[in-house]
Design brief:
This protein is an all-alpha fold and 129 residues long. It contains six helices and no strands. Helix 3 (39-48) packs parallel to helix 5 (68-91) and helix 3 runs antiparallel to helix 6 (105-128). It starts with a helix and ends with a helix.
């Protein structure tokens, strides 16, 4: 688990100062700022579902002003299910017939379901306003 946290934190810290005066960046920062109340849910969703590479999340989070405590908490908790599935696949390596066996439909569906449950409060509050 620590092997996920330290590189993620390093990339986060490295990118904080690199991109500050770009107009497109300011647009994304404003869009992210509109969703400040739901940051944790969004970050959990991004970490749990295999939609974006974690490296992209590590690089983009500080650039669009995601607070470090949200980034850290979502990384620590959000990567646990994915790590569990990867470890489970590693234990079954002797039985693998193809790369597709690493992430079967049930594993991917479970991650998406957990992500959907985490993002649902945000979607509901967004529809009410």
């Amino acid at each position: 688990m620590l092997l996920y946290i330290f590189p993620s934190t390093f990339i986060f810290a490295l990118n904080i100062k690199m991109y500050q005066n770009d107009e497109k960046l300011k647009f994304f920062q404003n869009e992210v700022a509109k969703r400040r109340k739901s940051f944790l849910n969004y970050m959990f969703f991004l970490r749990l579902t295999p939609t974006l590479p974690n490296t992209f999340i590590n690089f983009a989070s500080p650039i669009v002003d995601v607070p470090y405590h949200i980034f850290f908490l979502a990384t620590v908790i959000g990567l646990v299910p994915t790590t569990y599935i990867t470890v489970r696949a590693g234990l079954a390596l002797g039985e693998l017939q193809s790369v597709g066996d690493l992430y079967d439909f049930n594993s991917i569906a479970t991650l998406f379901f957990i992500g959907l449950v985490l993002i649902t409060p945000t979607l509901i509050s967004k529809n009410k306003s």
